[in-house]
Structure formats: C-alpha cells, structure tokens
TrEMBL record:
EC supergroup of this enzyme: lyase
Domain Orotidine 5'-phosphate decarboxylase, residue spans: 33-254
Name of this protein: Orotidine 5'-phosphate decarboxylase
Keyword terms of this UniProt record: Decarboxylase, Lyase, Pyrimidine biosynthesis
Residues that hold substrate according to the record: D39, K61, S152, Q220, G240, R241
Organism: Gymnopus androsaceus JB14
NCBIfam families: pyrF (TIGR01740)
C-alpha cells in the first residue's frame, strides 16, 4: 500500500477520527512507534512502570480489570501521566457482545472506559452491531476503535475469511474504526483490488513482539520489531513482558528495555519509509 512509505506525520491528514490523529501526531513528534502493555495487578507498580516508560512510548495499553486495588484516583493519575509524557491510552477491553451490552460495558460499570480511554478494541465476531453499539458511546467523545482481525496466539481462529470480513466491517464504519489489532497489512492477508482502496489508511497495532524469546508457555508467539514494522508493514509494536520483564520493580532496567524497543521499532520504520 502507498501508506507504507508515508511518514506517520504525513498520514495524520488521511484521518478524521481525533484519536487516530492524536496517535499519529504523537508518533511523529516523539519519534516512537512503541506501545507498552502494562499487565500488572497493583496500582503502584502500574503507575511506576508507566512513569518509567512514558518518554519512550506513543501509547500505553491497559487491562484495567486486572488491577486489584482499582479506584478512580488511579484513572486520574493515569491521565496525568498521559499529559506529562504525551501518550495516548488504549484499554485492551476486547468487547465481544451485542451492541446494547457493549455500549453499557463501555460507558458504565466500575471502570467507565469510554470516559478516559482514547482507544479501545472489539472482536468482530458479533457482526457490525458491535461497532454501532460502541460508536454510540465513543464517537461523541472523539474515541477510536480497533477491530481484532488477527491474534498473535498459536492456533488463533481469526484467520482467512474471518480476517477479510473484519476489514470489510471496518471499512463500513470508517468514522469510528481507526484500524486493527493484526499481524500484517490488508495486502499481507491477501486482500486486493476493490478491497484495498487508497483512502483506507487503517492503523495496524501489533502485539506479540519480543527481541529475546519466541513465545511463552501459554501460546503467545513473538516476532521482532523488524519483522512487524518492516516485513509485515504494521504501524505500532505492542510490548509487554519484553519491557517490564519478571521484576516490574526495576525502574532503570525497564527504562533501558523501553529505549531498546523504541530504537528497534523506529529503525525498522525508517528503513521502511525510505525503501
Ligand atoms: P506480552 O507480555 O508482550 O506477551 O503482552 C502482550 C499483550 O498484548 C497482552 O496484554 C495481551 O493481552 C495482548 N494481546 C496479545 O498478546 N495478542 C493478541 O493477539 C491480542 C492482544 Br488481540
């Protein structure tokens, strides 16, 4: 696709959704395509990791439902850090229900995700009504949605025609759907012709990224930033344990790992846009 050689900054104008624009602007300004996934269960550790990686990331990805001592002051502190370090927030909620239910899950409950998360995501499995449901809450707030068109795990069922149909669903809701959680581009999954039109500059955010190991004991599979950004044409690398490792208390180590992944991701991107 022609977007592979455009800079993140040039691509801002391809988007009308405020969350998509914000993310691309941050990537261009901070020169980073790294998102850190902060999958820890204690508020204190969660905030310490985010403060440590903040300078190196365009986006912080959360699973807010794993925090044991959650209260709304945590959200305020997360928002303060997002202003301090200039990153967007992505709650990796993976909605998967009927439109009416997901609208309630997104707006209400303990976490009130739509009120603070710039970006969230959904499984396309229920069909287009999941997008209308989430959009009824998120669009008026300027939020953006990613569809899960592929997964990083061994044996994932989101392949072939499922992935192609996810892209078609996204194209029918271009105002709210800003891109995909996926492992490759639309061309990479074999879509061509009418299915890949030039104004469809979807963002591709990719989990399953690691430099030191190939996977974990529970089906996760890792590829390198170079494979993801340069060879597969994705836009954002999402890294969790590769950065905060086994000891989330070691701030200096976390900072060094974040810098290492940021540099690897940016180098792969520069090679891509100049190819
Ligand atoms: P890791 O520690 O880098 O393996 O964490 C990966 C994160 O990305 C974790 O929060 C997962 O829930 C998330 N993830 C994923 O790993 N693979 C996928 O296909 C999707 C999400 Br979708």
């Amino acid at each position: 696709s022609s977007f592979l050689r455009q800079t993140y900054g040039q691509r801002v104008q391809n988007h009308s959704n405020p969350a998509a624009k914000q993310l691309l602007e941050i990537m261009e300004k901070k020169k980073t395509n790294l998102a850190v996934s902060v999958d820890v269960t204690k508020s204190k550790e969660f905030l310490a990791i985010i403060d440590a990686v903040g300078p190196f990331v365009c986006l912080v990805k959360t699973h807010v439902d794993i925090i044991e001592d959650f209260d709304h002051s945590l959200i305020q502190q997360l928002q303060d850090l997002s202003v301090k370090h200039d990153f967007a927030i992505f709650e990796d909620r993976k909605f998967a229900d009927i439109g009416n239910t997901v609208a309630l899950q997104y707006s209400s409950g303990v976490h009130k995700i739509a009120s603070w998360s710039h970006i969230t995501n959904a499984h396309p499995v229920p069909g287009p009504s999941i997008i209308s449901g989430l959009s009824s809450v998120g669009l008026p707030l300027g939020r953006g949605l990613l569809l899960l068109s592929e997964m990083s795990t061994k044996g994932a069922l989101a392949v072939g025609s499922y992935t192609v149909e996810a892209v078609r669903m996204a194209r029918a809701h271009r105002d709210f759907v800003i891109g995909f959680i996926a492992q490759r581009t639309m061309e990479g999954i074999g879509m061509q012709g009418d299915d890949v039109v030039d104004n469809d500059d979807f963002l591709i955010l990719t989990p399953g990224v690691g430099l030191d190991v190939k996977g974990d004991a529970m089906g996760q599979q890792y590829r390198t930033p170079r494979e993801v950004i340069l060879e597969s044409g994705c836009d954002v690398i999402i890294v969790g344990r590769g950065i905060y490792g086994k000891d989330p208390g070691l701030v200096e180590q976390i900072r060094a790992q974040a810098k290492r992944y940021m540099d690897a991701g940016w180098e792969a991107y520069q090679e891509r846009i100049s190819s």
